[in-house]
Amino acid sequence: MRICRLAFTDVRSIMGHIYENCYKLVETVRREINEYSAGLLAGTDTSGKFSNGHIVDKINASQRFIHSILMKYIPEEFQTSASLTSVSSVFTLPWDFGTLIQFEDENKRKVFPSSVKNLPTTGSSGSDQIYYRKGRTLVLNKSGVTKTYTLLYYSKPRDMNFGQAQAGSGASTLILQNVSKAKDDYYNGVIVENYTAAFESEITDYVASTYTATITGTATADDWYGMVSEMPEEFHFLIPYWAVLLLKEHPASQEKPNNREYAHFQEMLTSALTGFVGNDNDVNPADIWTDFGQCPSPSSGHDIPGQGYLIY
Which terminus of the chain has fewer CB atoms gathered within 10 Å of its CB, N or C? Predict the structure, then answer.
């Protein structure tokens, strides 16, 4: 009987690290799809079936998938807040905004959601205690307001990337590769590890036009860096598991995912979740995560017994 490598070897290679930064995640995934070399990891060898950029896309997709599951069981792990200052009654949501819990004014009073259809009538000034959602902004019912409110929300993990520090990197400055997000402040608060110089730092500011991240530490051009997932560390080792399964679904993959691999992922997820929060007396995690029948492809969804919804 053939035993898949994914089910057994990645536990040993993953669990020895403090953080699973994006550099290490790409390395792990490449090893598990049997497409690893120093040149492929560095991007100097382009003969592989999958580029590093494509692998990073799958890693970030895996992170989002696992986050969606964790939000059902441990949402408090992602609860956070931010102070937002309005510009002409418009508050811009932070880049890690996921789900709104509550919006509060400067006196910590709840500001109530409304609809864009309920704007003030002619001659009415409106209310700064009512807002409506518009894209990635919250807009007060009253115009011309400049105040600082508090947003309570559940965060979502931002996309990770990895690469080599660019020219201009130095003390307190890490110039990211130009595959990084072209959005100011997108990475603020994200942990980045300098794999070459062996230090970690929180990114305190990010300027998209120059891909410049402000850090604590000194980086040198060509240092390898990798961003760290914002999910609890106990679940970092699961990210490459699902990324490998996503890659194996690609038509170019030499090997297709099988039921044993899906079952193993479910077992590891169950164990990690149970170990993190303890067993729920009302819902048996094993029943939730292992009763998947033939373990269909994630693109078709999985029926969660007794819960009334699918996960993908």
Answer: N
Q: Are 231 and 67 in contact (CB under 8 A)?
A: yes
Q: What integer pLDDT is reported at residue 12 of this predicted model?
A: 30
Sheet holding 205-207, edge to edge: 171-175, 212-218, 205-207
Q: Which residue has the higher pLDDT, 239 or 18?
A: 239
Separation of alpha carbons 90 and 84, rounded Å:
10
CA-closest candidate to residue 168, choices 178, 182, 160:
178
Rounded to 10 degrees, what is the CA torsion of 91, 138, 63, 81?
A: 60
pTM across the whole model: 0.81
Query: How far is residue 37's CA from residue 22's CA, in Å, rounded to a whole number?
Result: 17
Q: Among 246, 296, 238, 248, which Cα is nearest to 66's?
A: 238
Closest CA relative to residue 42, chosen from 52, 32, 33: 52
Burial of 258 (0-12, 13-18, 19+ CB in 10 A): middle
| DSSP codes joined into one string, 5-63 | GGGTHHHHHHTT-S--BHHHHHHHHHHHTT---HHHHHTS---SSS-HHHHHHHHHHHH
DSSP assignment letter at 65: H
What average pLDDT does the chain have?
86
Spatial separation of the C-alpha atoms in residues 190 and 202, rounded to whole Å: 6
Cα 185-189-195 angle, rounded to 5 deg: 105
